[in-house]
Write a structure and sequence with these properties.
7 helices, globular, 0% strand, single chain, Four Helix Bundle (Hemerythrin (Met), subunit A), mainly alpha
């Protein structure tokens, strides 16, 4: 049995188990830690698929930076308070979530159906990237990805960073609670 299969069958059940356990956790910190386990398992899957760049990005960005941000927000909001999860502050929240879920599934199905025909034709490659690939450079895919991300998708990166800053500021404002004398603590 190849080593790739052994590694897959060790990490795949851990990934699925941690995802299911994360959904069933009542403690937000424990759920976030299980999400970190899931991120690491996904990073191993990327490594098995010969995608070392995605492996590194998964660990550095998601398991590192994003999870630190999540844990910071969880700690800032205070998870010591016991909330009754049966009481919904917004009655329309569940129907909107169901509509958004159906729309997301519909978008994914539409994207898969529309791109199924395009899989037979390879995307166009720049001449310098093709020359680097023919010369035996192993980082031709990384160069193509970097060129695409930092030329065509710079606005998306800037928008994402602005949204993260807005989320942190909003979290700080939400975490400021009024005490009985009317001042914030």
């Amino acid at each position: 049995m190849p080593l790739d299969n052994v590694v897959f069958w060790v990490f795949a059940p851990v990934a699925v188990g941690s995802a299911i356990a994360m959904l069933l956790m009542r403690n937000a910190v424990h759920a976030a830690l299980l999400l970190i386990v899931n991120f690491f398992c996904l990073a191993v899957m990327y490594l098995l698929l010969d995608a070392p760049f995605l492996f590194a990005v998964q660990i550095i960005v998601y398991a590192g930076a994003i999870m630190v941000l999540f844990l910071f927000v969880i700690m800032l909001l205070g998870v010591d308070d016991v909330d009754d999860l049966r009481i919904e502050p917004f009655k329309i929240q569940r129907p909107l979530a169901a509509i958004a879920s159906v729309a997301l599934v519909g978008l994914v199905i539409t994207a898969v159906v529309q791109t199924r025909d395009a899989l037979g034709t390879p995307p166009p490659i720049n001449a310098d990237i093709a020359a680097a690939a023919e010369a035996g450079a192993h980082d031709a895919n990384i160069r193509a990805l970097a060129r695409d991300l930092f030329s065509n998708h710079v606005f998306a990166f800037e928008l994402t960073s602005a949204l993260l800053v807005i989320a942190v500021v909003g979290t700080v404002l939400l975490s400021r609670r009024l005490n009985k004398s009317g001042t914030t603590r």
